[in-house]
Write a structure and sequence with these properties.
Blueprint (H helix, E strand, L loop, with lengths): L4 H16 L9 H4 L5 E6 L14 H5 L2 E4 L5 H4 L9 H13 L2 E8 L19 H18 L6 E6 L12 H6 L3 H12 L4 E6 L5 H16 L6 E9 L5 H13 L4 E9 L32 H20 L4 E6 L32 H6 L5
The protein binds (3S,4R)-3-hydroxy-2-oxopiperidin-4-yl beta-D-xylopyranoside.
(3S,4R)-3-hydroxy-2-oxopiperidin-4-yl beta-D-xylopyranoside (XIL) binds next to loops.
Amino acid sequence: MKISVKKRLALGAALLSVTTGVASAVPEGIADLYNESFLVGTAIKSRDLMGELPSADSLSCREFNAFTAENAMKWQHIQPAPGQFDFALADQLVAYAQQCHARVIGHTLVWHQQTPDWVFEDAQGNPVSREILLDRLREHIHTLVGRYKGKVYGWDVVNEALNEEGSLRDTPWRRILGDDFYVHAFRFAKEADPNAQLYYNDFNMYKPEKVAGAIRLVKQLAASGIKVDAVGMQAHYSLFYPALADIEHSIKTLRDAGVRIAMTELDISVLPLPDDAFSGADITQRFTAHPVYDPYVNGLPNAEQQQLAERYQGLFALYLKYADSVDRVTFWGTTDEESWRNNWPIRGRTDYPLLFDRNGRPKPAYEAITQHIP
Ligand code: XIL
């Protein structure tokens, strides 16, 4: 998956040519274009996995070569009640990916969000013992990872286990199982499919403290005999943050620690927020809606459209610069219409964070990162 020098130079020139306004048709999907550098993925919504699957010439199928279920494999959807697994949508994701020759990325096995309360409680609603929770975790991971053994390329085994300053987050997982809860999760995943890639995934990984925390986890796992195949840097960004230099610093820190990287959950909100210090992707964080925070309901002005394109261009230039360490770049959705950013962290807004507009047409941001390589 390494990019050739010729292609790297050509792509560099193409990225540059965006600023000079030289445009040309794109004969291949974005994933084909970056094929020699890294996988380019998208998140698939549950609604697309119900009923008949999108065809092989659907936009996601044409453009991307790695699929993550946006929600379908999360605990609350796949094991909503004790021992009741509902694999219908996840099976569809695997079928869709096979039809599109895309890798499947499993998301996610251990998270403090979108996990039902029953997982941590007994019949009276009291916290369960360590032994019971460990049993539930083992059963969940063995059942899920076992079912898709050889079909899921890699799993986000643990999601968002770190506080902003790099320490372990206080969650029911940690409270009941102890500080090594994540080691158990990785161990169960490895037992269930020894050949699947195993990832640690978190947001705000452009912060040095958080990256240091992730590296600590990776080292602790290595000491327990478990290799983390990549650290996922969730990239829920904005036009206003983070600085490219901070992202680059984190990439270098991970690379120098011998850790491979996946850019996961990439989207770039263009909308203003009430809190200048806001960042991250804590799904419980909410602000009250107000028209002032939703200025583009009738369309994105050219200036912002161009800003978005340049931001994507900067990011992809960075990803290419570190292509030797970056295995995958996954967008959190395909079209602006389907993006979760329309509803987070403020509900009901009109955001423009992805590469394709509400009609599935490529935006200037798409052109900016896919200029044809001769
Ligand atoms: C989001 C989904 O996009 C939404 O549809 C859902 O309501 C909440 O979760 N970090 C993650 C993702 O790891 O799973 C989250 O996805 C976004 C933040």
